[in-house]
Specification:
This is Solute carrier family 12 member 5b. By secondary structure, the protein is α/β, with parallel strands linked by helices. The protein has 35 helices and 15 strands.
Length: 1049
């Protein structure tokens, strides 16, 4: 029969250890060979159960799987969604996102304006940037499981909530503006190439700015309509968008294949797209019947429509445009074919000003430079001024979309394998397509056709369509559907990204966008996305919107590279990517390329994008939720802190670098709350020095029993520090007695070279009462220990009268009584206080004491010179203290002090010790004296009980200074004459200070050193009391034995 251990269950060290749970546990783990660890199973699971939960890990994707499940029936919901492989899950989505509107609408124009070499350089730079970013992204994506949230999740968990939020918002804005760009591309294809007659604002017959404004207004109206329809589709049924994704991708691939087929065909049978040239100028094909000035019809010469455009009548004797008269009309083949050698002509750039006529190189033309161009509406004109950096900004969006695979990480069978392979393969494929297109366009198409952005010289055809086989319409409809699909994808992805950021809770004002429909559809986020997208639609120009989204994507990619580089360089133990082909140098190169491209595209957009990211960063830092994600920035902080601490270890700081590193010792009440909160207010006001602050408190007891109280005290300290805006650290020490705990704090506070050099502790209240005798001894021990440790000591007396951080002194003085030099702390503290708004309006006054043999005039001059060199503004006054007789009042105070000391001492003695002490005192007083033989205690002291103050029996109206009989009478009973001298000095000094500084807002004084022997502790406190009597706020300062202020630069 086992009797048990006799311990009550409450004190058992195990959690939830009731008898019933013991039985359950024994049954649960019976036969599992886990009896030894069964008590830990509540907090530490078995390895088998842990592995089982990890193996069955699943996460909802960023896409619409959860929304489809919500709309399907119960049976369908129970079936696990089919997991996708590399091709379907990563490769094809990336291909669809990368290839798009820019390739079909602007690539030929980019080649024509930038030249084959310049455009190839742009493509190579942009593709290199995305490839390097993909390598960094692959490393991050394979370093553990990436849940839904894709790029935002990766960056925020690698760089912390501030960077994560800022970059997440940038990525969101980039995706939203991408939606606007796709919609504008879709409208451009519709209104320029498919149904030009659908335009609401007719631009027929309009020239210059009017025609441009009409076109932009058409884009705005149709863009808003299409945006509304797309938002409705996304709102009603996201699953249809995902199911149509493959159809849209098929359109893109078919279109590209049609272009390649056309290139091959052009080698032996180039398509017939003639361009009509007048001299070296390209003419608009619209309205032309034949490319000639006149034609022979029968035996007569008949003028053509072209003649009528440039002449005032259709007759041969009409007055015509001078340029028309002087130059011939010729026809040039628009698509000469890949074997024609046109590549050499298209190698170099051909940048143009806005409204400049498209001209062909190598054709002679007669031009009078003084005659302005007339009939400009008959020529093909440049619609914008082009330059290299503009081309980079317009092109870069065509390489974005590399995050599509990582955004679907929850859908993949093996994300860590699929994301790197699929993304890098997609970038390689699309880069090959882009680079080959640059060369093939330059080799197949005439330069003037390439520079003809809207195909006005080739019967209004899409320029890339003229090269396609079997028909230009393949490209027109293919690109139209691909832009629609891409727009829908953007409007689907962007709200979910915003929802992920909002649900993380790091940006408070976005929390409303985390809510949605019952099935999780982000309704509010979709509304905001559509509103921001409308801004892009109102801009209405594809060429103006493209650089905007380039900025946001480049910033996002830059931070992905930064995240990878930091994690690699910091070598955090958790950084173990499965993808091994990365290096920090590649990440830094990618980051540098991103930053360079941002400023190449548009320096002012780059600054705006960085400003937005910076504002969000600071907003999250100040207002956002505190998140601990084990991020790289925290790792940098740790590494930087370690490096700085190691550097600080090299030696003590130079006087110029000295700043108060304050250890604040605070007392706690029974509820573990701070007794003197104004100590922290004063600490805040002293923090102009920007030094270290440690707020220390002591809890009496043992660590095992009193740990909860220590935690509560620590929380209380942190809360008060936050309220008082004190930036620093809190430290609570548990010890068997408060004296040792305080000593531990003074000895062990700080780390390495970052240690406190000053201690701030409040003057003990009610120290005369026996109850607080221990507090008195603790205080004097602190004074002794700081002196021994060469630490400065700052003791505010009457701390409750000090101002809070919210108060302001509009006038007044801070008075410094500089009696002994202690390294300059007395000078430095008022300077630091006056940096704070509470004390800013106060003026500084310095008083110093001159003895009888000092030259006070010379002292004042020297002090003014010293302050001038210290760069301190202060009034100076030298106070002369004359030697005088020691008054009866001084003896009286000294006697009272000694008797109180004796009584307090006797209270703490044992009975035997007390008897021995009495005998010793009687022995000392046995010598006969001229006065009554009564003991000193009965002379002038009323009945004294512990805890009461000693009262004098004579009245204060005795002339204390001029009664030598009384003085000599009292002299005999003051056992220590040095006490009399100290009391005399304290009293005289106090009289002078009160006279000069009664009205001062703060008085700073040198603090006298503690007594060497322990018998005079109460006397020491009495001296301090006499010294500061009659003053409201006093700061007693004791230097640490080294200079803290210097006149040298």
């Amino acid at each position: 029969m086992f009797t048990g251990d006799g311990n009550p269950k409450e004190s058992s060290p195990f959690i939830n250890s009731s008898s019933s749970s013991d039985v359950e546990k024994s049954q649960q783990y019976d036969g599992k060979n886990m009896a030894l660890f069964e008590e830990e199973m509540d907090t530490s699971p078995m390895v088998s159960s842990l592995l089982s939960s990890l193996a069955n890990y699943s996460n909802l994707p960023q896409g619409s799987k959860e929304h489809e499940e919500a709309e399907n029936n119960e049976e369908a919901r129970k079936k696990p969604a089919p997991r996708m492989g590399t091709v379907m899950g990563v490769y094809l989505p990336c291909m669809q996102n990368i290839l798009g509107v820019i390739l079909f609408l602007r690539m030929t124009w980019l080649v024509g304006v930038g030249g084959v070499m310049g455009t190839f350089l742009i493509v190579f730079m942009c593709c290199s940037t995305t490839m390097l970013t993909a390598i960094s992204m692959s490393a991050i994506a394979t370093n553990g499981v990436v849940p839904a949230g894709g790029s935002y999740y990766m960056i925020s968990r690698s760089l912390g909530p501030e960077f994560g939020g800022a970059v997440g918002i940038c990525f969101y804005l980039g995706t939203t503006f991408a939606g606007a760009m796709y919609i504008l591309g879709c409208i451009e294809i519709l209104l320029v190439y498919i149904v030009p007659q659908a335009a609401i604002f007719q631009i027929e017959g309009l020239e210059g700015p009017e025609a441009e404004a009409g076109m932009l207004n058409n884009m705005r109206v149709y863009g808003t309509i299409v945006l509304s329809l797309m938002a409705l589709v996304v709102f009603v049924g996201v699953k249809y968008v995902n199911k149509l994704a493959l159809v849209f991708l098929a359109c893109v691939i078919l279109s590209i294949l049609a272009v390649y087929a056309g290139v091959i065909k052009s080698a032996f049978d180039p398509p017939d797209f003639p361009i009509c040239m007048l001299g070296n100028r390209t003419l608009m094909s619209k309205g032309l019947d034949i490319c000639a000035k006149t034609i022979e019809r029968g035996n007569s010469t008949v003028t053509t429509k072209l003649w009528r455009f440039f002449c005032d009548s259709e007759f041969l004797n009409a007055t015509c445009d001078e340029y028309f008269t002087n130059n011939n009309v010729t026809q040039v083949q628009g698509i000469p074919g890949v074997t024609s050698g046109i590549l050499a002509e298209n190698l170099f750039s051909f940048f143009m000003e806005k409204n400049e006529v498209l001209e062909k190189r190598g054709i002679p033309a007669v031009v009078d430079p003084d005659v302005p161009t007339t009939n400009a509406n008959r020529y093909v004109l440049a619609d914008i001024t082009s330059f290299f950096t503009l081309l980079v900004g317009i092109y870069f969006p065509s390489v974005t979309g590399i995050m599509a695979g990582s955004n679907r990480s929850g859908d993949l069978q093996d994300a860590q394998k699929s994301i790197p392979i699929g993304t890098i393969l997609a970038i390689s494929t699309t880069s090959t397509i882009y680079m080959s297109c640059v060369i093939l366009f330059g080799a197949c198409v005439e330069g003037v056709v390439l520079r003809d952005k809207f195909g006005e010289g080739v019967n209004g055809n899409l320029v890339i369509g003229t090269l396609a086989w079997p028909s230009p319409w393949v490209i027109v409809f293919g690109s139209f559907f691909s832009t629609c699909g891409a727009g829908l994808q953007s409007l689907t992805g962007a709200p979910r990204l915003l929802q992920a950021i909002a649900r993380d809770g790091i940006i408070p004002f976005l929390r409303v966008f985390g809510h949605g429909k019952a099935n999780g559809e982000p309704t509010w986020a979709l509304l905001l996305t559509a509103s921001i997208c409308e801004i892009g639609i109102i801009i209405a120009s594809l060429d103006a919107v493209a650089p905007i989204l380039s900025m946001f994507f480049l910033m996002c990619y830059m931070f992905v590279n930064l995240a990878c580089a930091l994690q690699t360089l910091l070598r955090t133990p958790n950084w173990r990517p499965r993808f091994k082909f990365y290096h920090w140098a590649l990440s830094f190169l990618g980051m540098s390329l991103c930053l360079s491209l941002m400023f190449i595209c548009s320096w002012y957009y780059a600054i705006v994008a960085m400003g937005i990211a910076g504002c969000i960063y600071k907003y999250i830092e100040f207002c956002g939720a505190e998140k601990e994600w084990g991020d790289g920035i925290r790792g940098i902080s740790l590494s930087a802190a370690r490096y700085a601490l190691m550097r600080l270890e090299e030696g003590p700081p130079h006087t110029k670098n000295w700043r108060p590193q304050i250890l604040v010792l605070v007392g706690l009440d029974g509820e573990q709350n701070v007794e003197q909160p104004r100590l922290l207010s004063l600490t805040n006001q002293l923090k102009a020095g920007k030094g270290l602050t440690i707020v220390g408190a002591c809890v009496e007891g043992t660590y095992l029993n009193n740990h909860p109280q220590a935690q509560k005290a620590d929380q209380s300290l942190r809360k008060l520090m936050e309220t008082e805006r004190v930036k620093g650290f809190s430290q609570v020490v548990i010890s068997s007695n408060l004296r040792d705990a305080t000593s531990h704090l003074i000895q062990a506070g700080g780390l390495g070279g970052l240690r406190h050099n000053a201690v701030l502790v409040s003057f003990p209240k009610n120290w005369k009462q026996a109850v607080d005798n221990q507090r008195l001894r603790n205080f004097i021990e602190v004074v002794r220990e700081t002196t021994a440790a060469h630490l400065a000591l700052i003791v505010p007396k009457n701390i409750s009268a000090y101002p809070s951080n919210g108060e302001r002194f509009t006038e007044g003085h801070i008075d410094v009584w500089w009696i002994v030099h202690d390294g300059g702390m007395l000078m430095l503290l008022p300077f630091l206080l006056r940096q704070h708004k509470v004390w800013r309006k106060c003026k500084m006054r310095i008083f110093t004491v001159a003895q009888m043999d000092d030259n006070s005039i010379q002292m004042k001059k020297d002090l003014l010179t010293f302050l001038y060199h210290l760069r301190l503004d202060a009034e100076v006054e030298v106070v002369e203290m004359h030697d005088s007789d020691i008054s009866a009042y001084t003896y009286e105070k000294t006697l009272v002090m000694e008797q109180r000391s004796q009584i307090l001492k006797e209270m703490h003695l044992t009975k035997n010790e007390r008897e021995r002490e009495v005998q010793l005192i009687q022995g000392k007083n046995a010598t006969p004296t001229p006065t009554s033989p009564t003991s000193p205690a009965s002379l002038s002291v009323g009945a004294v009980t512990p805890g009461e103050e000693v009262q004098m029996t004579w009245s204060d109206d005795i002339d204390k200074g001029k009664n030598p009989a009384v003085s000599s009478f009292l002299y005999l009973f003051c056992r220590n004459q040095s006490n009399v001298r100290r009391m005399h000095h304290a009293q005289k000094l106090n009289e002078v200070i009160v006279k000069k500084s009664q009205e001062a807002k703060l008085v700073l004084l040198n603090m006298p050193g503690p007594p060497k022997n322990r018998t005079g502790e109460e006397n020491y406190m009495e001296f301090l009391e006499v010294l500061t009597e009659g003053l409201n706020r006093v700061l007693l300062v004791r230097g640490g034995g080294r200079e803290v202020i210097t006149i040298y630069s």
